[in-house]
Amino acid sequence: MFFLKIFAFAVFCALFAAGCTSSGTGEGIVYAPPRADAATLAKRSGELAAALAPCEVRGLAFYPENLRKLHLDSPDEFLNLAGQFGFNRFYVCLTSPDSLEHPGLPVLLEAAERAGYPVEAVLPESNYVIGRRGNWLLKLFVPGGTTLEKMLEHIREFEAESKGFRFSGITVIAEPHLFTMSNIHRPKEQVYAWSESTYGPGLDNDMMMKLTLDKLEAFSTMLGGTPLTVAIPDFYQELAEDGKLTCGSVEDFEKFASKVMILNAGNKPTEAIEAVRNELRGARPDSLLVSVTLAEHTSVTTGALRRRNWTDFTRSLGHAISDWKQSPAFDGIVLGPFSQIETLYQEK
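^ thats the sequence. predicted structure below, dont judge the formating
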């Protein structure tokens, strides 16, 4: 069961990262042409807005590398569509310092802030490590990364150079389970490695989770009042409750994070609803966000919410939100990636 959940989350991460590997201005991305008529588009945007309406936080996730040139050249087009969809907050995925250098991003973020949209920076933990394992030949092709602390410096420099823009929050995706023995991104100084055979108090997986908690708590003290959200996969809570880990529950992350975001890897609507049931039960009121990734295609069977068409998507989403809303802990949803939403929205 746990292996399947971890596999599903690995697929989720692959889908998450795939959005960050396209050409510089988004011109190399294949989008469905706008085939639906204006009346249909207006109806669809209203349907999504209605589905999201019960949520306090209605977040839209996107990657600078995946935005179309149209959106970068005309930020108002992007903001108008986001507003029609009912979003009230943006989450921009920064996979490296280079993401901040993406052409047009500063102008877009400045326009978003002027329009009243809070913007959070999303930092995947596995992208921000200082050392990487491997021999000298491998290191020629796989350069060392940076740290969360160093990335924070880049973020502050970006803010200082902008026209008054400030990130309203920082979201870090906690990913200790990705640092397996075979992962070349595992920090070379890391003596532990995640494995299916090392569950239990004091074993490698447990120690790695403790190190992650310590690292993120220390990072939270560096933010100078900027709220920290920690995003975690939807199986950490289960591992902690079953005694496979002594820490890693929502409650542990809530000790220093203002909010916890659950990365929901449910593929079917029923799976998506059940995936966060335990987390919603244990979290404090208004502290939990649910992140839902829209599947690229109906053939996708793990790691993202599958849909047949726009109506199926909004109906499933509305049903899930209605269920989650019954928990006092639920504070909203983060939906993405924007490129998938827009493509489905435009289909005839």
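The beta strands are 57-62, 89-93, 119-124, 169-173, 228-233, 259-264, 288-293, 330-336.
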